[in-house]
Amino acid sequence: MNFDSSRPIYLQIIDYIKAQIIKGELKAGDKILSQRELAQKLKVNPNTVQRAYREMENYNLTETLRGQGTFIVASKDLKSQLKKEMAEDILKRFFMEVESLGYKDEEILDLVKQYQRQKWEGFK
After folding, report:
1. What sign has the CA pseudo-torsion 13, 18, 22, 24?
2. Whose CB has fewer CB within 10 Å in the chain, the N or C terminal residue?
């Protein structure tokens, strides 16, 4: 995993777990790695992972069962809810960055449309 220096690592770890849920790699009821295992896997400080796990519990994304581990919470619409939340977060950051360059709303939409056209033309 490559970390973005502009965002706190614990938030990126949360997004990493969310992405695994969206992709179907993790499902409701699945046990996730222990904090120590994930810290070793991602090569980050265990305290950072601990904070991410604490936040995921606060968001009702996971639950920790004493002596058993941490599990993805069973929720009917978890996958679609996470997908929508992550897309909104990405769009928010995108708009903030592009607006900081001086673009106005209509110009941003034109850029997005232009990019999309170029992307699809590349598949032809």
Report:
1. positive
2. C
The answer, as to whether pTM is greater than 0.85, is: no
The 10s digit of each residue's pLDDT in 39-51 is 999 999 999 999 9
**Residues contacting 91, CB < 8 A, separation 6+:** none
- 10 Å Cβ neighbour count for 95? 13
The range of the structural domain enclosing residue 112 comes to 78-122
Cα distances (Å, whole numbers) of residue 76 to 28, 29, 92, 94: 9, 12, 26, 29
- Same domain membership, residue 64 and residue 20: yes
Our count of domains for the chain comes to: 2
Beta-carbon contacts of 58 under 8 Å, excluding residues fewer than 6 positions away, are none
Q: Alpha carbon of 45 to those of 9, 38, 50, 52, 75: distances in Å?
A: 10, 10, 9, 11, 30
